[in-house]
TrEMBL record:
Pfam families: PHO4. One of its GO terms (molecular function) is phosphate transmembrane transporter activity. The chain crosses the membrane at residues 39-64, 85-106, 118-139, 146-171, 183-205, 217-236, 389-410, 476-504. The keyword Signal applies. One of its GO terms (cellular component) is membrane. Its main location: membrane. It is a multi-pass membrane protein. It is found in: Membrane. This is Phosphate transporter. Coiled coil: none annotated. Keywords: Membrane, Phosphate transport, Signal, Transmembrane, Transmembrane helix, Transport. GO terms for biological process: phosphate ion transmembrane transport. Residues 1-21 form the signal peptide.
Length: 509
């Protein structure tokens, strides 16, 4: 094959890689912020704005590592050495099979594994091309990935449960829970910063060839976490005490000067709106018919455009008033609201960490196949297993992640969060940190785990900590499990059938 042949596969690959990354953003990115939105720590619009930055940075700077696993360790790409164009076709059909299922599942509100989807699609294509021997079934290939699907929700559930039980018995149920919470917040800051700084350094910084020893990354992460924890104890905890407990009218920027700030006025109570308030205000001069028509037309056009662009973020996804969930929510133990409020910002920080980890891990599901298509098109030969990932492909797919979340992610946020179990800032934080720990550890060993499985397992684990199995929506969990089971065979079947239809079509005489 000569370089730059079969450009049609590159063009189609770009289209369906964008579609696959779009589906990943709508489905998997929503997992990172579902608990923060459900607990009320963030609005849906705020979550989307934060995710735009965290997902892009995680995908662009650290997404190349797991792309290698998806690209070259599911099937034996060396089988395509004599026909590189066939590998281009195969990776294109894999993107088609994966993107179709993920977007369909998102429209149904099914939180599926996009890792399952692309893995099944690549395996299905490989079987259609060369039979079952084309798939790397052993521990170095598919077996390791399949095992992670079952381990990740269990491990994330256990970690999240341990974190929440410690938080519950040491803080939430203590006699002076608010005071205990003020001491606990810096500890949680330390854990979050430590884990994620160590993860970033261990994966390697952009432009740095030699990685730091793992022990050194842990030390650097610990020092950074200790610095943030110290700042939190001296400044942020003090600000929380005065803002929440003493009701002082403090702004966010007062955090940096709180110990030196004299006592501030109390937060003013909002007066009830009266009839005179409603009718008072600026008096506008009447418009003539022409001006009125133009204004209404402009407002209508602007309103329609705004409504279309912001449709995905102007949704109620918290399920607080759903009568079908009332009994499940009632079985969850409620704690002091002021103490729960202490965890809001820490939960936002943990959600950002989970989102960053997700971007670094799951963007590979779209980047891996597209990178293979591009490298074959560029060189005319099958790329080596360690071929580098082109930065513009990482950026291209990272943008698609963000667009998918903003426009379509509300479907999954509505299915998770309070739909699994009652979610509060403390519960959400423990679920998110448990997920981050699991995903970060998996990325450390190059294992592409499912963040969907991790966050779902973590939320179920936290829900069971209520001591009542009926505090968990098992029907929703069953739907999640069903969607996990059908993902791999469905995507594999679509990809394999499409590959066979194109590759084995009758040739002209």
């Amino acid at each position: 094959m000569h370089p730059h042949m079969y450009t049609q596969f590159l063009v189609l690959g770009l289209i369906f890689a964008f579609a696959d990354a779009y589906g990943i953003g709508a489905n998997d990115v929503s997992n990172s912020f579902a608990t923060s939105v459900s607990s009320g720590a963030l609005t849906l619009a705020q979550a989307c704005c934060i995710a735009i930055v965290t997902e892009f940075c995680g995908a662009f700077f650290l997404g190349a590592k797991t792309a290698d696993t998806v690209r070259s360790k599911i099937i034996s790409v060396s089988l395509f050495d004599n026909n590189p164009a066939l590998l281009m076709l195969g990776m294109f059909t894999a993107l088609v099979g994966s993107s179709i299922f993920v977007i369909f599942a998102t429209s149904r509100g099914w939180p599926v594994s996009t890792t399952h989807s692309i893995t099944g699609a690549v395996a299905g294509m490989g079987i259609a091309a060369f039979g079952g021997n084309a798939v790397v079934w052993g521990w170095k290939g598919l077996a390791k990935i399949i095992v992670s699907w079952f381990l990740s929700p269990v491990v994330a559930g256990i970690v999240a449960s341990v974190l929440f039980l410690l938080t519950r018995f040491l803080v939430l149920e203590s006699k002076d829970s608010f005071k205990r919470g003020l001491y606990a917040v810096p500890v949680f800051f330390f854990l979050t910063i430590w884990i994620n700084i160590a993860f970033i350094l261990n994966n390697g910084l952009p432009g740095v060839k030699n990685k730091m020893p793992f022990a050194k990354t842990l030390w650097i992460g610990a020092v950074a976490g200790a610095g943030v924890a110290l700042f939190s104890y001296v400044f942020y905890s003090n600000w929380l005490r005065r803002r929440i407990l003493e009701k002082e009218d403090l702004k966010w920027y007062h955090v940096f000067v709180t110990p030196f700030l004299p006592k501030q006025p109390l937060v003013p109570e909002e007066p009830a709106e009266t009839t005179s308030d409603k009718v008072s205000g600026e008096v506008n001069l009447p418009l003539n018919n022409s001006d009125l028509g133009n204004q209404q037309a402009n407002q209508s056009m602007f309103g329609k455009a705004k409504g279309f662009l912001l449709k995905g973020v102007n949704k109620d996804v918290r399920n607080l008033n759903n009568p079908k969930l009332a009994d499940i929510h009632a079985r969850a133990k409620k704690f002091d609201s002021d103490t729960e409020n202490l965890f809001q910002f820490v939960q936002v920080l943990s959600a950002c960490a989970a989102s960053f980890a997700h971007g670094s891990n799951d963007v590979a599901n779209a980047v891996g196949p597209l990178t293979t298509i591009y490298q074959v098109w560029q060189s005319g030969v099958v790329p080596g297993a360690k071929a580098s990932v082109t930065p513009w492909i990482l950026a291209y797919c990272a943008v698609a992640l963000d667009i998918g979340l903003i426009t379509y992610g509300y479907h999954i946020m509505r299915s998770l969060g309070n739909n699994i179990t009652w979610t509060t800032p403390s519960r959400g934080f423990c679920a998110e940190l448990g997920t981050s720990l699991t995903v970060v550890t998996a990325s450390k060993i190059g294992l592409p785990v499912s963040t969907t499985h991790c966050i779902t397992g973590a939320m179920v684990g936290v829900g069971l900590c209520n001591g009542d199995v009926r505090a968990v929506n098992w029907k929703m969990f069953a739907i999640c499990f069903f969607s996990w089971v059908i993902t791999l065979p469905f995507a594999g079947l679509v990809s394999g059938l499409l590959f066979a239809f194109v590759a084995y079509a009758p040739k002209s005489l």
